[in-house]
Amino acid sequence: MSAPIVVAVSRDAEHRFSKPNLDEIELVAGIGVAGDAHAGVTVQHLSRVAADPTQPNLRQVHLIHAELHDEVREQGFEVAPGQLGENITTRGLDLLSLPRGTVLRFGPQAAVEVTGLRNPCPQIDRFEPGLLKQVVHRDADGNLVRKAGIMSIVLTGGPVRPGDTVTVELPAEPHLPLDRV
């Protein structure tokens, strides 16, 4: 099996749902993606700012696995990297199964720490009607399953580009499962 890779990077200075793909993004330690509307030490997502603007920003960098795009495409939805608002799209890594505190390294320098799951919002259905049910649903036991990616904070700044390998460093056990942040 080949190493996990970055397939796309995206950034937007405005609070829009989708983010345009770029050749490179720059991660800034403790802040997020340079030039992105969600970069900052404290929360930048508008709903979180409205609730408490002093909360720490545990959602500096949003990652989605390209396999999710493949999965929803099989259900008739066309979703490309960046269109669900993610900054980094990966392939070959089950992001949703990672424990909280996992460190992901991109290329030779940049690193993020996984903080939790993205909580999909109704904006997803405004992007493409019916898509929300594909990325959040209840399993057979009634548990809520969120599949719209993971959130992280930047530990080490540096460039991230499509084609960069992704190295995974698991935290010490016991591993804590991801929950929404």
UniProtKB/TrEMBL annotation:
Signal peptide: none annotated. It comes from the Bacteria. Residues 20-169 form the MOSC domain. It holds the Pfam family MOSC. Transmembrane segments: none annotated. GO terms for molecular function: catalytic activity; molybdenum ion binding; pyridoxal phosphate binding. PANTHER family: METAL-SULFUR CLUSTER BIOSYNTHESIS PROTEINS YUAD-RELATED, MOSC DOMAIN-CONTAINING PROTEIN. This is MOSC domain-containing protein. It comes from Catellatospora methionotrophica. The lineage of its organism: Bacteria, Bacillati, Actinomycetota, Actinomycetes, Micromonosporales.
